Amino acid sequence: MIKANNINFGYGSKAILNNVSLNIRENTFNSIIGPNGAGKTTFMRLLSGLNKSYEGNITYRDNDYSNIGPKERAKSYAIVQQHYSTRFTYTCYEMICMGRHPHTGRLERLGRDDYDMINSTIEALEIQELAGKKTSEISGGEFQKVILARALVQKPEVLFLDEAFSEMDISAKLAMIKMLKKSVDEKKLTVVAIMHDLNTAYRYSDGIHILKSGELYASGNPNEVFTEKSVKDVFNLDVEILPGKGFIIK
């Protein structure tokens, strides 16, 4: 679905990514993991089309990124970043409604189908009590849920998540991941998420892509990629792997 071939990227003389190639398969939940400074966020910005100043080639459904305009990309991709700010104060409902804008004309108003999708998404995320509140009145974790809802009503084929659960408590984070995993299985969504929780990535991912020092260390399914050696090499952790369950740090 998304293929990155021999990607090189840097800022000035500082190399960030070196010869990175991988394939994101359709209708899968993918986790990009690695230590701080490995190039995860930079690589996601390239994969999502936010930055096109790289060497190499990235395609979406065999269409080179240079041929995909912002409007077309907005209909296929949605992006939830770790930090988001706005100069204006909206209600949470207004913020979520913005996710439908790529699918409407410049002066076109939202229709009944749009509002049905918005309301069903709010119910699925169980954030009805936030709808009437202003975005300035809610917590960071609640705001991340609102931004996730906005991304989902965009009805993307690919959802990019850059540490999108960082301010949620563990219960909310797991609920969101389980909901997204269900959408992958039932609604043909493809998810690409930067994750720091290795156990969560192991349990819920179809594909794991490990970056280390700007290079692709490994890519494949969790049972292939996660070994005691790989966790030691990349994260300097001694672990015992419980197949199908997760890790115990020794």
Annotation keywords:
250 residues, alpha/beta, Rossmann fold, six-stranded mixed β-sheet, four-stranded antiparallel β-sheet, globular
In short:
With 250 residues, the protein is an alpha/beta fold. Helix content is 34%, strand content 27%.
Describe this entry's structure for a reader:
With 250 residues, this protein is of the alpha/beta class. It has one domain (2-249): 3-Layer(aba) Sandwich (Rossmann fold). The protein has 9 helices and 12 strands. The longest helix is centred in the last third of the chain and has 18 residues, at 170-187. The model has no long low-confidence stretch (mean pLDDT 92).
| Percent helix range | 25-40%
Total discrete domains: 1
Low-confidence stretches: none
**Total number of beta strands:** 12
| Strand neighbour order, sheet with most strands | 6-7-8-3-9-10
Report the structural category: alpha/beta
Please tell me the CATH architecture by its name.
3-Layer(aba) Sandwich
The string of secondary-structure elements, in order, is EEEHEEHEHHHEHEHEEHHEE
Distance between the termini: 38 Å
The shape is globular
Amount of beta strand? 25-35%
Mean pLDDT: 92
Domain ABC transporter: 2-238
Protein name: Iron complex transport system ATP-binding protein
Pfam family, one: ABC_tran
Keywords: ATP-binding, Nucleotide-binding, Translocase, Transport
Question: How are the secondary structure elements laid out?
Answer:
Blueprint: E1 2-11, E2 14-24, E3 29-33, H1 40-47, E4 55-60, E5 63-64, H2 70-76, E6 77-80, H3 92-97, H4 112-124, H5 140-153, E7 158-162, H6 170-187, E8 190-194, H7 198-204, E9 207-212, E10 215-220, H8 222-225, H9 228-235, E11 239-242, E12 246-249
